[in-house]
């Protein structure tokens, strides 16, 4: 005999599915934002152990988020561009964004504004000397400039 009655389980699940419908089947930007907010709450609440029951809910909500994002043209285009951007250009762009830097702000580390522009546009590469200079200035590990992911 089952310890849990099928009707109880079914009714509990239907109640959950009804309450969480907008994050289980994301259709709007507001649903998406709600799902992201729920994920933040779940990450903050869940214990860092394998068998935490909230991990199942995290997996369910994350699948809904991934599905929604895969259907959004601007997210897909951004992901495609990000995947096609070299690690060194990404690091340089992040530094510029976070530090509110302009092309001319790398004069001492890279050189002219036009050289920095060519690097950002993928027409030239950072040299070993550029990487050392930037790493020293911003106190970074030079390895951050290299894509070390194993395919």
Number of strands: 0
Identify the CATH class of the largest domain. Mainly Alpha
- Please report the number of helical segments: 8
CATH domain fold name of the largest domain: 434 Repressor (Amino-terminal Domain)
CATH architecture assignment name of the largest domain: Orthogonal Bundle
String of helices and strands: HHHHHHHH
**What is the residue-mean pLDDT, rounded to a whole number?**
91
- Quickly count the domains: 2
β-strand percent reads under 5%
What are the segments in which pLDDT stays under 50 over at least 5 consecutive residues?
Answer: none
Q: How far from one another are the termini? A: 49 Å
What is the overall silhouette? elongated
Largest pleated sheet: none
Residue share in helix = 55-70%
Structural class: mainly alpha
Radius of gyration, whole Å: 23 Å
Account of the protein in words:
The chain contains eight helices and no strands. The protein is 63% helix and 0% strand. The radius of gyration is 23 Å and the shape is elongated. It starts with 5 loop residues before the first helix and ends in a 13-residue tail after the last helix. With 151 residues, it is an all-alpha fold. α3 (29-45) packs antiparallel against α4 (54-70). The chain has helices spanning 6-19, 21-24, 29-45, 54-70, 73-83, 87-99, 113-120, 128-138. The protein folds into two domains: 23-79, no CATH class; 86-145, 434 Repressor (Amino-terminal Domain) (Orthogonal Bundle).
Q: How is the topology of this model organized?
A:
Blueprint: H1 6-19, H2 21-24, H3 29-45, H4 54-70, H5 73-83, H6 87-99, H7 113-120, H8 128-138
Helix pairs in contact: 3-4
